[in-house]
Amino acid sequence: MATTLSDIPLTRNDGSADSIGAHRGKVLLIVNTASQCGLTPQYAGLKALQERYGDKGFEVLAFPANDFGAQEPGSDDEIAQFCETEYGVNFPVFEKASVVGPEKQALYKELVAAVPNKRGDSDVFRARLERAGMIPNNDPEVLWNFEKFLVGRDGAVLARFAPSTAPDDAELTGLIESAIDA
């Protein structure tokens, strides 16, 4: 039997059990996050998306990872405190886990397999990282922090966006609205 996103057990950063199946019927934006990244201010935009669409069956799910430049070094408690204090995060934050390589969590294995290529300016962003001495990943791996996967109400992965795609990007919000209305 094939694994589906809803079958994958997850743990929130407070230690409580969760799964994508527990969010069934919602449009989800799954994002790997980091608290010490140049893209960390996207938390504010993710919060705004949650506020804008949350009552329409939409939810942001944050997955902290320390895979890129050691930009998420804190414990789950420290991450939770940062998210609440700095951004007033109003969506679920999960335990820190890898989103790339041999230790990649099962959810990200399935997300990447479902949509191996991302939308947005990943080539421009990749070049910027390389100029800064960083080593970004190539597709199908997650490129960097704040890559976004849009999942429909039925659990199908609809789209994948480069880390530099802002939460208020017109293409992203248009697809969120289409998925909400579907």
The CATH topology is: Glutaredoxin
Number of helices: 5
Total number of domains? 1
Sheet with the most strands: spatial strand order? 4-3-5-6
- Unreliable stretches: none
- What is the ordering of alpha helices and beta strands? EEEHEHHHEEH
Largest sheet: 4 strands, mixed
Q: What's the N-to-C terminus distance? A: 27 Å
* Text of the CATH class: Alpha Beta
The CATH architecture category equals 3-Layer(aba) Sandwich
Number of strands: 6
Q: CATH superfamily membership, which one?
A: Glutaredoxin
Helicity range of the residues?
25-40%
> What does the overall shape look like?
globular
Mean pLDDT: 94
| Strand coverage percent | 15-25%
Task: Give the helix/strand class.
Answer: alpha+beta
Q: What is Rg?
A: 15 Å
Explain what this protein looks like in three dimensions.
This protein has 182 residues and is α+β, with helices and mostly antiparallel strands. It has a single domain (5-181), classed as Glutaredoxin, CATH 3.40.30.10. It has five helices and six strands. The protein has helices at 42-53, 76-87, 106-114, 122-131, 170-181; strands spanning 9-11, 17-19, 27-33, 58-64, 148-151, 157-161. A four-stranded mixed β-sheet has the order 4-3-5-6, covered by helices on one side. Strands 1-2 form a two-stranded antiparallel ribbon. A hairpin with a 5-residue loop joins β1 (9-11) and β2. The longest helix is centred in the N-terminal third of the chain and has 12 residues, at 42-53. It is globular and about 40 Å long. The two termini are 27 Å apart. The mean pLDDT is 94.
